[in-house]
Each structure stands twice: as C-alpha cells, then as structure tokens.
Amino acid sequence: MDYGFYEEYGTPFSGRKLRKLREFLQSAELDYDEQIEYTVNLTDNEGTIVATGSVHNNVLKCIAVSDKHQGMGLSARILTALLNYAARQGRDHLFLFTKPKNAAMFGDLGFYKILETDTILLMENKRGGIEKYVVSLERPANEGGTVGAIIANCNPFTLGHRWLIEEAASKVDTLHLFILSEDKSTFPADVRYELAKAGTADLPNVILHRTSDYLISSAVFPTYFIKDKAKAADANCELDIRIFGQYFAKALGITKRFVGTEPFCPVTNAYNSAMTRLLPEYGVELVQLPRKEMEGRAVSASYVRACMAQNDLCAINAVVPQTTYDYIVSPAGRALAEKLASQAEV
Predict the structure, then answer these.
(1) Beta bridge partners of 208
(2) Candidate ranges 98-102, 108-112, 255-259, 262-266; pick with highest mean pLDDT
(3) Residue 63 and residue 77 in contact, taking contact as beta carbons nearer than 8 Å
C-alpha cells in the first residue's frame, strides 16, 4: 500500500538535510555513520523523515522507521531502494547490521543470520553464504594433526610477518594464513596477498587465504547502533572473534591462533585480550609470540610505510624480504611512496 510518502536520495546528504537525518537517527538511538555513501529517506508531505536507510560498499546500515509508522512496510520500501542502488553498483552480496529483536523482520525481507551477540545481529542476503565460503577454503591433502591460524593485514609484508609465520608454522602441522581482503590499506589487497604469498612460498605447511568480508572488515565491525560507545569496541571484537570460532575454526579444525605481541596499540591489545577470553569457548588457544626486533626496534609495516614516505630505501631493504622490496621500488610502489609523502606533508 502506498501511504503517500516521498523518497529522497543523497550520496551522501549534507547541510540541513544531513542535520535532519542525524536528528532522526538519534531519535531511533542510532548514530550517523560517517562512511555512508548513499542514503534513502522517506518523508511525509511536510518533509519530516519517517524512515531511512543507508549503504557503504556492500553493508546496509542506519535503517530506522519512526515509532509512529511501524507496520506500514516502510522497512521493505527502504530496503528495496538500497538493494536497487547496490545492484546498479554491481554488488550482489550484501550484509546488514541490526539489533537482535529485528531478526524476523529482516529475515522476511530476504536476509539470513550469520551471527548474533547480545547487542548485534549480522545478516547477509545469501542463504548459507558464510558456510559455502568456508567450505571452499583450501585444506591440506592429508588433514589431521595440529592446525593453527594467523590473520594479518601485511601492509606490506615484512620480515616481522615472516618471522611470526615461520615460528607459528613450526609449532603446527598446518597453518592457515588469512590476509585481509578489504581495500582500506595503503597497499592494495591483491598486492598484500601476493607479497605474503611470495614471502612464505618456501613454507610447505602454510596455506594462504583471503578473508573475504567475513573476518576483520567493515562488514563485521559496526559501531553506529551501539549507544554506549565505550562498549562498541568490545562488541565489535566479540562479533569478529565468534565468527572466526564458530565458522572458520570449526570447519578447518583450528586449535591455535597466533598473534604477535603488541606493546604500543591499545586497540590491538584489547582485541588480543578478547581473544584470550573468548576463543577457548571454541577449543582454540591464543598463542602470543614476541615481535621480531632489529637493532632494538620492532619490525613493523608502519615503520616501512614511514620509511617509504621519507624515501629511505636502505632502511626498508633491511626489514623486508626481497620480494617486498622489489615491489616498493617498482613504479607502482614508488607511486604509493609519493602518496605517503604527500600525506605526511599535510
């Protein structure tokens, strides 16, 4: 039934329309997500927002209907408009965050549960999508023995990554190495994957994978609908860790997850603490290995990027494998270095 509401679109909104949207979301106990790329609002004939929904990449977010207009099918109308937009962008695999109480409503609209915590429900529009992805992952020819895992960004792949992976591989029969798929890093996802592949090619029990959207990505790190921001980071960590435990560890027989110690980053420390607490529920032990140091300095990808910005090739050559160095001095790598240098000047 058409209730006479009007659709307005923004990519994204700005000015007065953005202020109205923020106020409407606040009334629904949601925050506006700064990553939004496209929004659909439904308004009455006075221009008052009665329903809204947005999208960023392949994640639908900030979907809300005013209390006075529940039961009118407005969520379906918003969702249809967002799905049409996503289709025009060539995106067919979509994720949606909502509160657990909304499971039935979005289930009726074609979304399927991936995982639910006390505060977050993550859904996707492909039935059994995550199960099918995990089943598709490469496994060793002779399964069995102790199985471990590392999830890494490798932005770019360094001798520190190599040391961590080699140490972990020596402690298990099979090591699954997951490289983050999301393109939010200085080095493109495909480049990071290929550098990690080249840097571990001589380790016979290491199997490389891409994380797709299911591990450590914007598809599993929501914050916009968690009112208590002090708890948002914990909620994000829990969702990601439980997805790993329930789906990846179970399917691949993983019983050890390896990480490097993190003396400087509080976010990483909090994530490691959450893994220590939650992974045993899935029969997985967290193993923290000390980071590789050279000349009293921890070898890190951030150090390599800083050296790229300063054009310090000698320093870079000392802390990365030859394959990574070759990429950094290539035309593509030099272009990244110029970008880093310009950002450092701002």
Answers:
(1) 177
(2) 255-259
(3) no
From CA 94, how far away is CA 125, in angstroms rounded?
A: 6
Phi and psi, residue 14, nearest 5°:
-150, 170
The candidate with the shortest Cα–Cα distance to 217, out of 153, 269, 130, is 153
Q: Is 3 helix (H, G, I), strand (E, B) or coil?
A: coil
Q: Where does residue 311 fall: left (phi above 0), alpha (psi -120 to 50 degrees), or beta otherwise? A: left
Taking every pair of C-alpha atoms in the chain, what is the biggest distance, in angstroms?
Answer: 71
How far apart CA 306 and CA 215 sit, in angstroms, is 27
Distance CA 137, CA 294 (A): 35
Integer Rg of the chain from CA: 22
Cα-to-chain-centroid distance, residue 144: 29
Judged by phi (left if over 0) then psi (alpha if -120 to 50, else beta), residue 293 lies in beta
Query: Is residue 51 within 8 Å of 5, Cβ to Cβ?
Result: yes
DSSP H helices, the chain, are 15-27, 74-88, 103-108, 129-136, 159-170, 189-199, 232-243, 250-252, 266-278, 301-309, 313-319, 322-328, 331-345
In this predicted model, which residue has the larger pLDDT, 6 or 43? 43
pLDDT of residue 280 exceeding 70? yes
Residue tagged 């000349």 (tokens): 295
Lowest-confidence segment of 10-14, 53-57, 238-242, 303-307 by average pLDDT: 10-14
Top pLDDT among 45 and 257 is at: 257
Q: What is the set of domains in the chain, with CATH numbers?
A: 6-128 (3.40.630.30), 143-345 (3.40.50.620)
pTM: 0.87
Task: Find, among 158, 173, 160, 248, the residue nearest to 203 by Cα.
Answer: 173
Long-range contact list for 330-339, CB < 8 A, 24+ apart? Answer: 332/191, 333/308, 336/186, 336/187, 336/308, 337/308, 337/309, 337/311, 339/186
Confidence of residue 275 (pLDDT cuts 50, 70, 90): very high
